[in-house]
Amino acid sequence: MIYRIYFKKIIDTILALIGILVLSPVFLLLIVFIKLDSKGPVLFKQRRIGKGKSEFFILKFRTMKIDTPKDTPTHLLENPESYITRVGKFLRKTSLDELPQIINILKGEMSIIGPRPSLWNQYDLIAERDKYGANDIDPGLTGWAQINGRDELPIEVKANLDGEYVEKMSFMFDVKCFFGTIVSILKHDGVVEGGTGEIERGKATERN
Question: Tens digits of per-residue pLDDT, 43-60?
């Protein structure tokens, strides 16, 4: 409980500051690639749900073309691949598009480890997380669900894993999630263009 209330936020701030300093050359390089690849801003802002279901704007490196429909999850787009830029495909595959959320962490809107913040209009996911208290903590840059399926998970399973994180939240569990994320990124586990619930949709396709 002490870790959850006091130390987690302190650790987040310290690691975020170190992250910005160490990764600044990577930031600059990605900014150049994004600008050369397609028209539009470098950063992408999107309304998300934070602690207590308050809204904030999450920051990402832009991976999609500027004519992409706003506030629409990737898996609900018709032919999502057509909207993703060339550099965007690489950024999404490596999760480098998430790096600007270090700024959200410094602003106190996010944590390094926690449930991934849902879109403001993902009412089904928000409601499901309410069952587990997963809307009552800071959302994270990565989390327990992200190393256990990521985009492939159906909403019910993802919310259940977020609830499991709430129950087990501790320094050692956060360390486990952090290093588990690195392994998942290196293996490209669970990254599916088309988004949430691809496992279930794949099974349905096979049955048909």
Answer: 999 999 999 999 999 999
